[in-house]
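Please, structure for the following, as tokens.
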Amino acid sequence: MIFLIFLVIIGLAGVLGASAFGGFNFDAIPDLPAAASVIGILLALYLATLLSHRGDRRLALWPTLAACISGAVLVAGAYNKNLPISLTDLLPISRPADDGVALENVASASVRLRRRDGGFFANSEINGTAMTVRIDNGAATVVLRSSDAEKAGIDIDSLAYDTPLRTANGVNYLAPVRLKSVRIGPLVLNDVEALVAKAGTLNENLLGTSFLRRLSSYVVAGDFATLRE
């Protein structure tokens, strides 16, 4: 009888050990081993009850404990069939990284600008050409001076200046374009909507909401503005 008790305990411990340290997916268990595991748990509980009635309560503790732990493993596996049950996920045991799995860099790129001359100015690269832009969340798009647009590789002679833009000086007509890329520090956006102003009608380049709305955040706090991708 004692030999049978310890045989059941060893068998249940083997099931637990396989699930804990080898990885164990309950979808992969054939019906017969699963049924045998359940029968083993019931047998352990029966033996624990029998020993308890005979007065061997200390000895009855072991099959009871084994049955409870193994039952918890089976229930957890049946409840969450998509994940392997493994105590190595819970214990502080050093595990090698999975092959082919790269850790994501969750840190997002950001740029912090200090206010100067009443606004926020950034050194940018538009279509790979360096130029200064003023952050303007009141402008619907990026707006470029004619000379800077030409430096960025835009054929200004072929543009159609048919998009009206109301300013303090009245209504100006600008030409819609698509910019290949706009970079400010580590922030890079491709295919950005923009407008090109006629020569002599714009004093500075504007970085409007066609760029800002594609960022994860644009926050102004005091004399600083933070742009985050």
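The chain has two domains: 2-89, 110-228. DSSP finds five helices and ten strands in the chain.
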